[in-house]
Amino acid sequence: MRLKSKIIGIYFSSIVLSVGVFLLVIAFLMRYGWWSGIDNHQMETVADQVAKQLFQCEDITSSEIAPIIKHWKAIEPGMRIEIYSENFNWIQSTDGQTHFKNIDELLTELSKHGYYNQDNWVVAKAVPVKNGGNIYLSIIVPSAYYSAISYSVNYPKGAGIVGIMLLIGVGISILIATVFAYLFTRGLARRSVQLYEGMSEFGLGNTDIRIEDSSKDEIGDLVVVFNRMAEKLSQQVDEEKAFQEERKKLISNISHDLRTPLTSIIAYTESVENEYYEDEKEKRQFIGIIKKKA
Predict the structure, then answer these.
(1) Of 46, 70, 231, 257, which one's alpha carbon is 20 to 30 angstroms from that of 277?
(2) Helices 3-31 + 161-201 axis angle, to 10
(3) Angle 145-146-150 (CA atoms, 0-180°, nearest 5)?
(4) Which helix (H) or strand (E) holds 30?
(5) Which residue, 92, 180, 86, 83, is CA-closest to 139?
(6) Backbone angles phi and psi of 220, in degrees to 5
(7) DSSP for residue 203
(8) By three-state DSSP, how is residue 135 classified?
(9) pLDDT tens per residue across span 248-274
(10) What is the mean pLDDT of the chain?
(11) What is the reported pLDDT for 33?
């Protein structure tokens, strides 16, 4: 893959991964984190805890229930908690108002669960009291607060949610792009250094240098060209060495072939020069030998 294609691939991969991570982070924050909304399980849990506190009350009066209501209003501001007597007379609520006039309205509201256009989600529970009988506890959550997204957008929790999401997205994109760029440039730098060191060590006295790089990009092409050049130069150096060896052998053989007749020529020439012969016949014999050796 060419470097241009790798860069484009890394660019789009970082975008896809950034979007995926961003959606996962936002989904986590919406479901479990700061932006999580109110679900039915949470409403049931609160209803059970409020019921336990109401059961501990000696007398079910507005003044005795008020601290409980105030406590849960601070903890779960998205929930409206209402307390009714056994005759369904309103006793206390978190907003100081009654939502249901009678038990039939409560049952009607409960029957709407699961409808797309329902206005409220309701959990109701009959709570036994110490002096006998029951009281009714209802927890009401407007649909705008029930789902995570609408709860975050419409409630103080979601103040500046768009800007925060933008910052999260930018942060994730920068982080992933940095990691991708580091991994890509680290490999590219390592290969470039390897190529530089191989070229620096290469010379006529060291032609055995070869660089290992199987990548099919521009650097890989340069490595292939370098290795081919190194192979050709290595062959030329080997051929030059072989030629010099043959030349030395040739000169040695020629020297050997010349040395024997030259020795005879010198010896007989000195004999003639110093008159180491007995008569003219032997002198002419020496001269003939000199001529023949020459």
Answers:
(1) 257
(2) 150
(3) 55
(4) helix 3-31
(5) 83
(6) -60, -40
(7) B
(8) strand
(9) 998 888 888 788 788 888 888 888 888
(10) 82
(11) 66
In sequence order, what are the residues at sequence separation of 6 or more whose Cβ sits closer than 8 angstroms to the Cβ of residue 264? 289, 290, 293
Triad 46, 144, 156: Cα angle to 5°: 80
What token pair was written down for 241?
């060495």
pLDDT band at 31 (very low <50, low <70, confident <90, very high): low
User: Rounded to an integer, what distance in angstroms lies between the CA atom of residue 212 and that of residue 50?
Assistant: 73
Handedness of CA 112, 116, 118, 122 (dihedral sign): positive
Contact 151, 145 (CB under 8 A): yes
> Which tokens in the block code for residue 72?
């849960």
Distance CA(112)–CA(119), nearest Å, equals 9
> In 38-130, which ranges are E strands?
80-84, 90-93, 120-128
Task: Give the long-range contacts of residues 196-199, CB within 8 A, separation 24 or more.
Answer: 198/226, 199/226
The torsion angle over the Cα atoms of residues 226, 227, 233 and 235, rounded to 10 degrees, is -170
What does each C-alpha distance from 9 to 4, 191, 269 come to in angstroms?
9, 19, 90
The two structure tokens encoding residue 27:
């989904």
- Strand, helix or coil at 137? strand
pLDDT at 227 > cutoff 80: yes
Strand order in the sheet with 80-84: 90-93, 80-84, 134-142, 120-128
User: Which residue, chain included where needed, has tokens 């209402």?
Assistant: 82
d(CA 78, CA 75) in angstroms, rounded, equals 9
pTM for this entry: 0.48
The Cα–Cα gap between 223 and 88 comes to 88
Give the three-state DSSP class for 57. coil
